[in-house]
Task: structure prediction
Amino acid sequence: MKLAVAFAILVVAAAMTFQNASAQSPNRMFGIGVNTRGSAELCYAVSPAIHIGTSLGIDLSSVSYKGGDSKTANSIFFGPYGRFILQGTKSFKPYLSGQLGIQSGGGDTKTGLDIGGGGLYFPENNVALFGQVSVVNLGFGDLSTSDIGIHSGHLGILWFFN
Result:
């Protein structure tokens, strides 16, 4: 939680630093980034209106109980996504997104489809700050759950390069 708050402060500070910027959405550029869900992102701007990519994450956790017992639960996450960027101002663009998530760990594998939206702020042509919320989460498999509502929000930053 402390990491998420620190990252949010960093994103807000960066946005205030570039408040007079007027950059455009990247076109035919690769990008790398991080987000507050604890994963890295690889992205390709197919056009200024379509970005495709994937989130990659590793979660290593261990819990110790009184009496010496402990439990570890390590997992990996892979989530290819598409962002469909809508008309907005020159430097701020709302978007719709869809992501197929695959998480594996502890002998279980969970898959699901996450649909949501957010906003991309481009202080420069090669930098994007984003915020996103999930609206629909459809789980697949034996232990699946489906949710509708605003949940699972996160922030992130992407750096694009040729």
User: Anything to note?
Assistant: Residues 10-22 have pLDDT under 50 and may be disordered.
